[in-house]
């Protein structure tokens, strides 16, 4: 079972088969992917409708995934639909990027969020009810400090193609400054070899919302002469506010909400 | 069969059983609702992922529904999922409206788009491939001029509750001025009995995008002292731009795209 889940997640998330990854496999929630589960009827609340509401920013300010949707969200995240949904977004982003004539002054940047955009914390959330459990900063930060988050393969693929088009990449994350080193190492290990800037949330933004923090940092980028041609995140707070970029792309994430 | 489809659509869309509605039934596309079809696997393109991409504004500027998704979109629109998705949006909107303390100066307004938001053109689109066929203004305007579009029941329900909360309603539609009378009559017939303003697209906006036209008209509302507390539409062009309102709500529509 553990081997099956490891192989599945290895395939799904492109986890490299280094021996240090084995520790991940033993922690995986025993929810097995069931093809076609995403979209099934759930009595009462339609979890598919709830998920659509989340993705479209109609359902906002929620704290945890509705209990009756744990299995639905788990199957969605571990199954094919999450990956297909991510692929459509990444493909649209690539088509858009390819349609642009870059300024060739090396100031065109693409902003990526990190968690659930560049890197996946699915190995963590699979152990914590896929968002049904309330966010536990102690446990989550412990997971982050392990530096073992795999890449979201669709984003990594897009990242590589953007680089080949001459676009520079900026990572803009809500992770705190003290996680800079582990985050940089994790990004490299996951395949993100280079970037123009890696922006983490400094203590001056303590208590500020993600929208305020990220808008402010994007404004600094613009003031420095960068042109944000694209901006991709799994939270609407990555994509709303000011200086959002020429076009924004919403990656799926039905597990948590950040305002 | 025709009777079955009539009864189904009558139930689904709340078509009143007046005899003048019988003409609608004979025109319905022979695609019968199949429970659970929405979300099924489609080889190659995932139509569910495509639909999510549309709803999240990741897939933009498309002209027609991909051919391989005609059946998927048809089943979605005629089946339960479209209605459930709409219900989640309307419920969130109502919860939000109920949470507000209205200014009680009668200047709080809620902006509704009309087509696929207040009224449903499903009887028309069911005959035209659910968005697979390219938009035909002659045929579509002929349908509009019949004034027989049923209400989208979730929106009508929200509308009634907003009125009872003391909110005034503004309809802001891309329909042209010459359709004012038929549109007003259609709205009343469908159950929308009253409104503060019914704004149609005047000739001065000819050639202007929906975002420009609707932003400009919303600005006029704001300049007149109205406060847009909510704004609901099926197109992102209803909800983006300026003066969008305190909160926006995206109704589902995988059948067409308006920029």
TrEMBL record, chains A, B:
Organism: Theobroma cacao (Cacao)
Keyword annotations: Glycoprotein, Signal, Storage protein
InterPro entries (UniProt xref): Acid_phosphat_B-like (IPR005519), Acid_phosphatase_pln (IPR010028), APS1/VSP (IPR014403), HAD-like_sf (IPR036412), HAD_sf (IPR023214)
Role of this protein: May function as somatic storage protein during early seedling development.
Pfam families on file: Acid_phosphat_B
Gene3D superfamilies assigned: HAD superfamily/HAD-like
Family: Belongs to the APS1/VSP family.
GO terms assigned for molecular function: acid phosphatase activity; nutrient reservoir activity
The protein's name in its UniProt record: Stem 28 kDa glycoprotein, putative
Listed GO biological process terms: defense response
Residues spanning the membrane: none
Keyword Transcription regulation: no
Signal peptide as annotated in the record: 1-18
